[in-house]
Amino acid sequence: MQLRGITPSSIFDLLRRPWRQRKKQGASDTDTPPDKPILDHALQRLRNHGIPINSLIDVGASNGIWSNSFAQYFPGRHHLLLEANQVYAEALAEVCQANPNWTYRMSAIGPKNGTLFFDGSDPLGGHVSEIAHSPNYKPFPISTLDRVLEENPLPAPYMIKLDVHGAEIPILNSAVETLKQTNVLVIEAYNFKFEDPAAVPFWDLCQYMLSIGYRPLDVFDILYREVDRAFWQFDLLFVKSDLPLFQDLRYFVAGRH
Questions:
Q1: Of 4-8, 40-44, 105-109, 164-168, which one has max mean pLDDT?
Q2: In terms of Cα–Cα distance, which of 222, 238, 246, 144 is closest to 186?
Q3: pLDDT tens, 132-153?
Q4: Strand order of the sheet with strand 127-129?
Q5: Domains of the chain (ranges plus CATH)?
Q6: Structure pTM?
Q7: Is the omega angle on the peptide bond into residue 157 within 30 degrees of 0, that is, cis?
């Protein structure tokens, strides 16, 4: 299925945030320090921490752009790309065919196995809900992350990327077994409250993540809304809260000051 006037290439351009630029050909990671709040630098910083990751579970994968960025800094990992919006099916088939150990599944991820409502009318804003908020919400089969990993086994430990527009906590509540093997999560988080009560602002998300054993290590891709340039959203990178690095309270590198 394809939306009128939108091609896979134009969707790719829409999804590329202005600051999410590829590294210039021939440039090395040491040309500039990875100290900017952008995806490429966040992935470099994560790699430098040496946290084990064998598989990426990309929830809300769209056309695979995020997985492609991840693979630049973590090559050779297994990838499972999960997407509910059929507009991306062709692009996902192509990207997984081109990369060994990548697979995709056209599936909505949610708090239970069964049927919920999915709004796929906007390729940049698909949303799963227990309530049909508008006529655009259609009944749609849904699976938990635990069920998906049972049916599509991956080598642990995992990194999970969630771009699910407010459904993060219900998804994680039903991913008990998956989280036991997850070292890193990246979650798109918001500064506003929305109609869906499950869509909590970032400060409530951080409290929830702390309650299940994770705390923020990084933030990136800060977005300001168009109407007044107020802070709208960013991506939060969470790791296990018992990592030894959180016991190190130094700021400066030894010998520099």
A1: 40-44
A2: 238
A3: 878 888 888 889 999 999 999 9
A4: 108-109, 137-143, 114-119, 127-129
A5: 34-111+144-247 (3.40.50.150)
A6: 0.83
A7: yes
